[in-house]
Structure formats: C-alpha cells, structure tokens
Amino acid sequence: MKKVIFSLAIILAGIFSMNAQSAIRKGDVSLNVGMGIGSHHGSAAFMPTVDLETGIISGLARGKGAITVGGRLGYYGTEHNFSAIILATKLDFHYQLASAVDGYLGQTLGGYFGNDTGFVYGIHLGARFFVQRDFALFSEVSAGWATPFVMVGVSFRL
Could you give the CA distance from residue 111 to residue 98 in angstroms, rounded to a whole number? Predict the structure, then answer.
C-alpha cells in the first residue's frame, strides 16, 4: 500500500510540475477526441466522441478562468443493438488549477438520432493534463441523459 501511495504521489508531482501552459484565451480552439462509457436502459454503452470548442471569454477569476462553447459529435452504441448519433452543444467554465492542469465544469445539450431519438443533456466535470502546449490528456465524469459516465481522451489545440 505504501508503494501505491508513493507512486501516486510521484505521478501527481510530475503532472503538477510540468512546464506547459494550459490557460485558455479568447479565440483558442481545441479538438477533443474521447471514448466514454455509459448505459442505456441498463445496457453498457460505448461512446466515442469528437468535440470542437473555442474560448469566448477569458481573464475571469483573477486571470485563471475562461468560458468555452462548442459542439459534440458522437456515437452511442450498446450491446443490445441500440445505436445513435449524438449532436450536442457544450458550454464550459475552465479554471487553471496548475501550470499544466485545466479543470472544467460544464453542460451538454442536444439530441441523439438512430434506433430512437431523444434529448442529450447533462453536466460534466473534467480536467486536461497538458503534456505539451498544444497536446493534453483529459478525463471527465458526467451525469445526465445520453451522456457518458466516464470519458478519457486526448485534446489538441488548433
């Protein structure tokens, strides 16, 4: 157990000491590609997604906060032959937690179309860990309808 805690401490120290910058500025554009896991009426659902977002307001919260808007295109498929395409909008508040860590909280709103149609809505909490100025790894948890419970992926600044 001590080795696990020590290893986690080393990993976190490395992440928080990276030199890349993660502050989002007005006009910045990011492309996020992720894989999520969720459920649909009790069946496991796999959700690959592509998000495109742009910074619309920066300089909030003493210069560490920003607001982005964007869109999501995704696929929603279950083991019981349910499948749908997801089209949604996203609105996120980002806060620079450390020099290479961008935390965010936001909402998703849209629809899904396929075997069935319906609304996509939810809230999400996530973080991007910048390995380089224009490349990050991200993880996200969310709650809502037709949204993944957990998602991981990569983010590129364009």
Answer: 34
